[in-house]
Amino acid sequence: MKRDRYSNSRKDEVIGRYESGLKAGKFGYFEVDELETIINHYMDDANPQEAMNAVRYGQRLHPNSTTLLTKQARLYADTGEISKALSIIEYIRTIDSGDDDANLLKGEILLRKGMREQAMEIFDQLKRESNKDCAILLNIAYALNDSRMFDEALHFLEEAIAIEPKNTDVFYEMAFSLEQKEMFDEAVIIYNKILDIAPYSNEAWYNLGQIHMFHEDYGQAIDAYEYAYAVTPNDFQSLFQKANAMLLSGRFQEAVETYEEYMDYTGESVNTCVLMGECYEKMGNFESAEAIYTKAHGLDEKDIEVLTGLCVCCLEQNKTDQALEYIQKMRNIQGNTCELWIYEAEVHILEEKKAEAIRCYNNALVINPDQPDALIALGKLHADDKKYTTALAYYERAKKAGCEMERLSVLLAHTFFGLADYEMCEKYLKEALSYNPMNIQAFLELCPEAIESPHIDLLKYLD
């Protein structure tokens, strides 16, 4: 878990020299810390075989190096050969019982085996013998966090920060522990402490944005992502997340512009085009939404989200033939689904083919008997034909299925008016108005005859 002490250029030089020797079959001499850098490189690349080869070559140069033995033990531990790893650690301890790296690794292995008490004994002993070494405390915390022992990790991190109050590595690990415990407010405080020390920290700004995003505080999320992108202009993930936060906050035009900027750097992708299409849809600009979905369709003709977006745009623009084409394409990919029957029903509604629409909605209910859109649509179609008893049956099913009551209460008020049950009509009308007083207009659009009805005094609702 040690951090490399070399700069990137120095690391590249050492690794390049090693790999040149590997190709030529003729290695030169490497110091132990150089070999450590080489081994870490292969471990980070998930190439344990090459890492082990580097260890064995290093052991020929430095046969008594406990550092290389510890690396070998870690490789055995990482590849599941726990017995070999422990055997090497015990051998190291015969050479140097106080070898911190070996003792730390033994604690990690014990954690992996579920022997937490024994591991904590080793970690506590390391802490006592470390002479207030912040790096050892931090490495212990890494091991504990990896084993999801976040409270214990925080204990060691608090001691580490008392030793080095401006160590941002410690603060980052504290923030990680707190986030895993869902203590997000406390994590925000830690990230702000990091920014007090390192105000141009891209990682801190980005992580703050992620927390604000999780809490749906989109304004602060946008600000954080903007700072992350400003301090690291090639951090296009921050730019993408900024666009997502704008979409979620209702700043649709700004989101579109930000997605376009993102694609200028990263190229067009289906996912980004779909998100832009969603923005255009929410702005009611279905022509532009269709255009961007068409671009995405060119990138992946079988993407269901894209085909759905194209279908919706065609429905909104009354392009029924094209909508049916996209529905059929989706059926060819995934078969019949409840949603596809509903989209086809909506096509028939636009074409004023009620019988066909009813057939499609019923097919949707065969697949999902509790589909609220299908139940409500069937209720409306029957209510339009003044078949109020049938309509009521569908609405009652929608109610049992957990349909949103604001949406349903207006429809129930209309249906009970049609059934001449004025008491129930008023009950649901009052319920609808408790959600939104403007629902009186929705009721009157469905039931204009109620305005002159002697059975309901609508004037008291119109004030």
Give the rounded overall mean pLDDT.
Answer: 91
Query: Which quaternary structure do these chains form?
Result: single chain
Counting DSSP E segments of at least 2 residues, the number of strands comes to: 0
Q: If you compute it from the alpha carbons, what radius of gyration comes out, rounded to the nearest whole angstrom?
A: 33 Å
Number of helices: 27
Give the CA-based shape: elongated
Distance between the termini: 71 Å
Tell me about this structure.
The protein is built from 27 helices and no strands. The chain has 463 residues and is an all-alpha fold. The N and C termini lie far apart (71 Å).
Short recap of the structure:
By secondary structure, the protein is mainly α. The protein is built from 27 helices and no strands.
Please name the defining characteristics of this protein.
mainly alpha; single chain; 463 residues; disordered N terminus; elongated
Structural topology:
Elements: H1 8-24, H2 32-44, H3 48-61, H4 66-78, H5 82-95, H6 100-112, H7 116-129, H8 134-146, H9 150-163, H10 168-180, H11 184-197, H12 202-214, H13 218-231, H14 236-248, H15 252-266, H16 270-282, H17 286-299, H18 304-316, H19 320-334, H20 338-350, H21 354-367, H22 372-384, H23 388-400, H24 405-418, H25 422-435, H26 439-446, H27 459-462
Helix pairs in contact: 1-2, 2-3, 2-4, 3-4, 4-5, 4-6, 5-6, 6-7, 6-8, 8-9, 8-10, 9-10, 10-11, 11-12, 12-13, 12-14, 13-14, 14-15, 15-16, 16-17, 16-18, 17-18, 18-19, 19-20, 20-21, 21-22, 22-23, 23-24, 24-25, 24-26
